[in-house]
Structure formats: structure tokens, C-alpha cells
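Minutes, project check-in
Item: structure for the 69-residue chain
Input as provided by the requester:
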Amino acid sequence: MAKKTNTKRKIIALVSELTGHRTYVTRKNTMNTPDKLELNKYDPRARKHAKYVETKKSLGRNEVKPRKG
């Protein structure tokens, strides 16, 4: 059987404030934590711990961008 998809849980990516790279992807319950998630995690590019902030997972992928003209 296929898993039920719970619409309250969203897939998010975490972006390092130090380097700006998305290293971690996780899920969060939007009902319990409506504000942006901020975690202190290890940044492999900077080789130290840094603050990671929540963004959308599909940032720049599979999205229709508006035309300029």
C-alpha cells in the first residue's frame, strides 16, 4: 500500500547563512511551527557550525518563472 500524504507536513530545505548553500533537507509540521525554522548545524563547506534558515525545497526547480517581456 502507498503511504498517506499528510498535507500538514511540508518539505523544506535549510540554507546556511555563512556560505549560502542548501545542505540539509527536512520536513516540518506547519501547524505546530508556522514561523521559519532556524537551526544551528554543521556546514561542511565552511568546516564549522553555522545558523541554517528554512527555505522552500524546490527553490529554482520545476517552477514557472514569469516572462520579462
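Outcome recorded: The two ends are 47 Å apart (CA to CA).
No further action items on this chain.
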